[in-house]
Structure formats: C-alpha cells, structure tokens
Amino acid sequence: MTRTQTLAIAALATAAFAAPVLAGDIYRYTDTEGNVTYVDRPTGAPTEERVPISSKPTDPSQVQARLQSRFDRNPADAGEPEEDPPTRAERAEAERQRVEKCQQYRDQLETYVTSRRLYRETGNGEREYLDENEVLEARSRAEELVVEYCD
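Predicted structure:
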C-alpha cells in the first residue's frame, strides 16, 4: 500500500467519524498517477467531486428503551421454554466460532479497504464491478460485522 493510499484511507476514516462533529465538506480527486486523495477544501482538480456525507443525531431515549426491552425480556413471559445454560464445551465451541468469524470479517474488511476495484461474480461466472456506493456499503457492512464479532 502506497503512502498516498494510506493517507487517503486515513482521511476517509477521519472524515467518516468526524463528519457529524465538523459538518464540513469533503472533496475527492484523482491525481495524474491515479492516486485518490481526500481533502477538506476544493482544489480545482478536473476530477474533483464533493463526497456526500450525511448524519443524524441518535435519540438516547430510543436507544435506552431498546436496550431495556432486551434486558427485561423474560422467556417464561413470552411463552418460550427456558433453556439450560450452555456447557463448558458449548461455550468453548461458540467462542472458537466467534474468533473464526472475527478473523474472517477482519480479512474481508482489509480486502475491501486495500483493493483498487471490487467485484462480484454473476451467475454465468463473469465479473460485475461494484460502483463507489456499493463499495462503501460493502465496507460499512464489513465494519459492522467486525464490531459485532470482534468486541
């Protein structure tokens, strides 16, 4: 990975996490060597485009209500049979599977971040390249899975 690519990824990550705080514009352009660069001010480059970033505040009361409903849920009240607690072997197997999934999703995310172009295979075995929105969506989903399985 080149220094420019590393900086671009860092800029994108910073922009993604700081956008709600800064609420500024982010611009993306490709230089003559094909390196993608993200900046906070327009440069006038012919390939420059504004990156659409949107966010909305989280409603703490809704989050709290969702969490509380999960903790308050009683299987006996819902008509579900209570389950026996998992055995040590079952817990160990579940942990092994979680670690395996964590590594799988970390590898997948790394591929999504470092690959120049992403594609999916069609039914007849041909490659269909993802557009920028599909790539961002795939990265976002991979990040969610890493958080879910690696925390």
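Summary: Residues 88-114 form the longest helix (27 residues).
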